[in-house]
Amino acid sequence: MKEQIMQLLKKQDYALSTQEIYDCLELKDVEDLKKLIKALNDLEKDFLVYRTKKDNYMLFQNCHLKAGTFISNKKGFGFVDINEPEDIYIAKNNVNKAIHGDKVFVEIIDNTPGKMEGRIAKIVDRSAKELVGEYNIVDGQGLVTLDDDHYKFKVSVPFDLSKSAIDGHKVIVRILNRKADNLYSGEVIKILGHKNDPGIDILSIACKYNINDEFSDEISKELENIPYEVKESERLNNLWNKYTIKRNYAKDVEFSEIAIKQIENIEKMGYSKFPVCIAKTQYSFSDDPKNLLCKEPFTLHVNEIILKAGAEFVVAITGKIMTMPGLPKVPAAESIDIDEDGGVVGIF
Fold first, then answer.
1. Tens-digit pLDDT profile for residues 158-200
2. In this predicted model, what pLDDT tens digit does every residue of 107-145 receive, in sequence order?
3. CA separation, residue 213 to residues 174, 175, 205, 316 (Å)
4. pLDDT tens per residue across span 45-83
5. Which of 251, 264, 342, 266 is nearest to 301 (CA)?
6. Dist CA 67 CA 69 (whole Å)
7. How far is 168 from 175, CA to CA, in rounded Å?
8. Which of 186, 276, 279, 322 is the most buried (most CB within 10 A)?
9. E strands within the chain?
10. Are strands 56-59 and 16-17 parallel, antiparallel or unpaired?
11. Could you report how far apart the first and last alpha carbons of the chain are, in Å?
């Protein structure tokens, strides 16, 4: 039906009402009407047709608007990505209740190359339906402060829709209705845990970006088939032969005196069955980051052996490498922003 609608609108010089489209397509009953309305809504969301203020329809390419996705800034202004080299700047007073991620129609008010500016004419589809935030009881009502500062509003949650959340719970909240400029109503659909619980900070980020935090059934079955016990041939004192001979990686493995003593101690403590993780450069099969292709036989240099008894594995440190890069607690990207003139600030 969508193709029929598109072909019909291509032949028209003016916008058609739903009834006119129904008649032109010679549709027969209420079920056909329901299918027509759904098809029109889908075409509008895909920016293929435009619905006027009088609820008439025309091809989007024939209207005066641009279509795209609104990208908000925490200062209130934003841009509309229209899949062209230049985005359209939207001043704070021209946002027209759009929120980050909305599919919108935008009217151009300044077409100067490099300084295109517009105003949001219509919100076509709201993508932000489920968001992550912190639940707290404020002035006798549940209130969720969202993690993503692109969203400049809070979400009010009635107690009967809170799933018994308490102060400090990180939750996934479904957006329902707009109550005021900076306030929406919503419902808690999942409690992730308390913000101070171990791992909840990572889980919140995963949910914020729609990263699946659970393995599929297929992967879970594969994990069940992985043997926990390490084979004799894969024990610490034999693994080096496997690395050099079976894999054809190196001609030899050279241990430092420190590494040899550490292996002896690990064997004495009874941890020789632990799996071995080899820490090495990502640029080469060898421990030399400049030896990219490993065309010639090489020697793998093991500097030290580190026991991770709690995690139940052993780390072999090879070459010059840091096992954990020194990263700041707050990434530099947190201070990078775009000012109201479109300039980048916060880069050091």
1. 999 999 999 999 999 999 888 887 899 999 999 999 999 988 9
2. 888 888 888 999 998 888 887 789 999 999 999 999 999
3. 19, 22, 10, 30
4. 888 898 887 889 989 888 888 889 999 887 889 999 998
5. 251
6. 7
7. 19
8. 186
9. 16-17, 49-51, 56-59, 66-72, 78-81, 88-90, 103-110, 117-125, 130-138, 141-146, 154-157, 169-180, 183-194, 252-255, 276-279, 299-308, 313-318, 337-338, 344-345
10. antiparallel
11. 55
Tens-place pLDDT, residues 311-327: 888 899 998 887 776 66
Residue found by looking up tokens 């912190």 in the block: 134
Token pair belonging to 40: 């029109």
Q: How far apart are CA 31 and CA 20, in angstroms?
A: 17
191-237 pLDDT, tens digit per residue, is: 999 999 988 998 998 888 888 777 778 888 887 887 666 565 555 65
Please, are residues 250 and 300 in contact by the beta-carbon 8 Å criterion? yes
Question: Residues 6 or more apart from 255 whose CB is under 8 A from it?
Answer: 263, 302
Q: How confident is the model at residue 245 (pLDDT cuts 50, 70, 90)?
A: very low
Would you state the structure tokens that stand for residue 241, as one six-digit string?
């032969």
Question: DSSP secondary structure string, 81-117?
Answer: E-SSSSPEEE-GGG-TT--TT-EEEEEEEE--TT--E
* Rounded Cα gap, residues 273 and 124, in angstroms: 60
Tokens, residue 91: 């001043």
